[in-house]
Amino acid sequence: MSIHRIVVLEDPAAVSAADWDTVAGNSLMSSYRWQSFWAAAQAPSLPRSRTAIVAVYEGNQLVGHCGAYRYPYPLPFKQAWQRRTARSLMWPINPVNFHKPPQVHPAADPDQVIPLLLQGIDQLRLKWLAPAARLVMLDQRRDARLLGHLQKKGYMIAPGITDTQLDIVWPNFQDYLGQALQGRHRNYLARCYRKAIEAGAALKVIERPSAFQDQIITLLRNVAARNRSETLYDESFLMAAEQYLLRDDIVVIGAWLKGQLVACTINFRDGESLIQKSLGMDYALAQSLNLYRLIMAEGIKYAIEAGLSSIRCGFSQYDIKGRLGFDQVATLSAIKAAPPILSRLFTYRSGAMQVDNTTANSSPDTLVDSSGNSQPGKAGTSL
C-alpha cells in the first residue's frame, strides 16, 4: 500500500517548481509561477490577503496539488472608506477560495489523491479559521469525478456563475466577423470601429504593460469604484507579472484616444484558452465610443491570430457578449462550511453573475454601448 502525506504551506518556495508544473500540465492558473504571481499581485488589505498550497506526496513524488487564497471581499457601499472598513470587519466570514480545481499527476490514481487533497483543504480551512471552503466554475462533465468526491466529503453542490465562452474555429478575424456574427451585429460593430477611428482611437496589445502600470490601475479602479467594489490587484501587479509570469501569460489590450490610454482589458493565457479577466475604463472618454465592445473584439482577434482554441469571458453584460458570438456556460459551485447549514450562504450569486434573459434578448444596439445604463463589470474583475 502506497504511503501518502499531505502538506499545507504558505511559501511556494518550499515546493519544487518543476514537480509542481509536472502535475499542473499546461494550465497557467494551476502553475507554480501563478502561485508566486498571485501572492505578490493581490491588493493590500487589512487583514492581509493570504495564499497557500495544498500538496499530496507519494514518497518523495508530488502527485497532486491545489493553490488557495483568501481575500476579504468588500461590501457594495458607496464610499471607499466604508468598503475598506467593512471588508476588514467581515474578514472572519471570508471562505478559502481556489484558482482552479485540484490537480492530479497524470500517472497517479485520482481516486486516491483527490480525497487526500480535500483532506488537506480541510486542514487549511481550520488553520486559517475560515468558515468555509469554496470551489467555483466547476463543469458537470469535465469535473464529474471531482464532484463525486466533493459530495462524499460533505460539500454542497449548487448552481454557479454563468460564464461565457467563444470557441475559436475561424482562421482569421474576417472569417469570424462573417460567420459568427449576425448581419446587424456585424454592421454595428463596423460602425463602432469606424466611429472610434474617426475620433482618433487606436486599439492594440500593450507590449510591456508594466510601463503603463499607473494608468492601468487607475482604469481598473474606475470600474471597481463605479460598481462599489475594490480591485483584486496591488498597484504594482504588472511588475509582479513581469517578474513571475512568462511574457505570453498575460495579454493587456489597450485603447488609446489621441495618445491617452482610456480603456484596457487584462487577459491571461491559460493553456489553449484566453481568459478575459478584468476591465478598466475612463468612462468620460471611452463610453460614447463603445470601447468596451471594441476591446473585447480585439481580444477575439488576438486569440484567433495566436491560434488559441477558446476565449472565456466571465460574467455580466451577456447581451453584448452574445452579439459577439459568445455562448453562455452554466457552472457549478462546491461549498463546505462549518456548521454545514451555513453552506447555502456561500452560494450567493449577484445579478451580474446570472443571465437576465429579458435584457439579453430585447435591448437593441445603439451607438452608445449598453454598459452606459448597466454595470460593465463587477468589482473590476470580469468583463
TrEMBL record:
GO molecular function: acyltransferase activity
Keywords for this protein: Acyltransferase, Transferase
InterPro entries recorded: Acyl_CoA_acyltransferase (IPR016181), BioF2-like_GNAT_dom (IPR038740)
Catalytic activity, EC: 2.3.1.-
Presence of keyword Zinc-finger: no
Domain spans labelled BioF2-like acetyltransferase: 184-318
Source organism: Kiloniella laminariae
Protein name, per record: GNAT family N-acetyltransferase
Segments passing through the bilayer: none
Ranges for region Disordered: 359-383
Pfam families for the chain: Acetyltransf_6
